[in-house]
Amino acid sequence: MRILVHGGAVLAGTLARFLFPPVCAGCGGAVSSADAVCPQCWLALTFIERPYCEALGLPFAYDLGKGFLSAEAIAEPPPFERLRAAVLYGDLARHLVASLKYRDRTDLVPLMAGWMDRAGTELLAEADCIVPVPLHRRRLWRRRFNQSAELGRRLAALDAARGGRLVHAPRALVRVKATQSQVGLTRGQRETNLKGAFHVPPARRGEIEGRRVLLVDDVYTTGATAGAATRALKRAGARAVDVLVFARVAAGGADGHIVEETNTGSRRWLT
Fold first, then answer.
1. Do residues 220 and 191 make contact, with C-beta atoms less than 8 angstroms apart?
2. Cα–Cα distance measured from residue 140 to residue 134, given in angstroms and rounded to the nearest whole number
3. Angle formed by the axes of helices 147-161 and 91-102, to 10°?
4. What's the Rg (C-alpha) of the chain?
5. Cis omega (within 30 of 0) on the bond before 22?
6. 27 CA to centre of own chain
7. In terms of Cα–Cα distance, which of 117, 264, 262, 234 is closest to 173?
8. % of the chain with per-residue pLDDT over 70
9. Cβ proximity of 260 and 268 under 8 Å
C-alpha cells in the first residue's frame, strides 16, 4: 500500500511539472525547480556577504576587521541589535518583492525565505521567536495576506526542519495606526509618521517578554519601520531585537527607487 501511495505521489508530481513547468521568478525562463532562478538572473542579484557592518549589515568593499561598524551605524545607532539581509535592493530584488506583495506571488516565499535563512543563520540560531512586521487591518484586507508573515512562517518551518524550536508569533505585534503615505518624506518625517504605529497587545506580552525577538520584513529602506517596531517590542519587554529582511538598500539608498503602496491601494515610487 505504501508503495502505491508513493508511486501515486511521484506520478502526480511528474504530471504537475509537465502541465505547469517551473519558470524563473525573474524572467520567466525555464528552470529545473520552482524555488530557483536562471543563471542570468542569479548574476543580476547582489547577495550580501561578509565583510559587512555588524549592526546594519551594509557590505564593505574590503575587510575592516571583526566587529567594525559603518559610518551610518556610528552616526545613528539603530534601536535593534543587528540587521541582516539576503540581497541588495536592485532591479531584480525589487521585481521579486513587488511580485510577492502586489501580484499574489506567494510561490516566491520558499525562494526568498531560503536566501534569508542563509543570510540570517546567526540571528535565527540565537532567536527565541519570529515576529513579522504587521500590516494595518485595512491594508491587510486589501492585500489579503501579509508578505512578512509568510516569510516568517517559512523561516520558522525551515528552523523546525533542522530540529529548532523557533516560535512564529504573527499576532504578537499589531499595527494600530494607518500611517499616511511616506512618499517624499525625510527620515525624520517618516519616524514621526510611524510614531505610535505599533503595539504589543497585553494578551500577547508573554510571547515577547524576556525573549530575543527576530523581526522579519521584506525590505529595509530608511529603517523607520524597523525602528518603530523594535521600540514597541522593547516596550513590551523584549530582551533584544534583531532584524532579518529579504533585501536592503545600499548605503544612502543608492540602489534606486522603492515602490510603495499608498493607503488608497495605488503605488508610487519613493526616491
1. no
2. 9
3. 100
4. 19
5. no
6. 22
7. 234
8. 83
9. yes
Helix ranges (DSSP H) in the chain: 2-19, 39-44, 71-75, 91-102, 109-119, 121-126, 137-143, 147-161, 187-194, 224-235
Among 270, 156, 155, 179, smallest CA distance to 228 is for 179
How far apart are the C-alpha atoms of 116 and 111, rounded to whole Å?
9
State how far the alpha carbon of 104 is from the alpha carbons of 59, 99, 144, in Å: 31, 7, 9
Cell digits of residue 52: 559587512
6, three cell numbers: 508513493
In this structure, which amino acid lies at residue 135? L
pLDDT in tens, 155-194: 999 999 999 999 999 999 999 987 766 656 677 777 787 8
Query: Cell digits for 214?
Result: 527576530
pTM across the whole model: 0.86
Contact 159, 120 (CB under 8 A): no
The average pLDDT across 98-105 equals: 93
The SS3 call for residue 57 is coil
Neighbours of 15 (CB within 10 A): 10
DSSP label of 209? T
**CB neighbour list of residue 54: distance below 8 Å, 6 or more residues apart:** 67, 68, 69, 82
What cell was used for 3?
508503495
Residue 251 has pLDDT above 70, yes or no: yes
Count of other CB atoms within 10 angstroms of residue 43: 10
In the block, cell 519570529 appears at 130
Give CA–CA dist 162/35, Å, rounded.
19
Q: What is the grid cell recorded at 266?
A: 495605488
Condensed to tens digits (0 to 9), the pLDDT of residues 112-156 reads: 999 999 999 999 999 999 999 999 998 889 889 999 999 999 999
CA gap 148, 117 in Å, rounded? 14
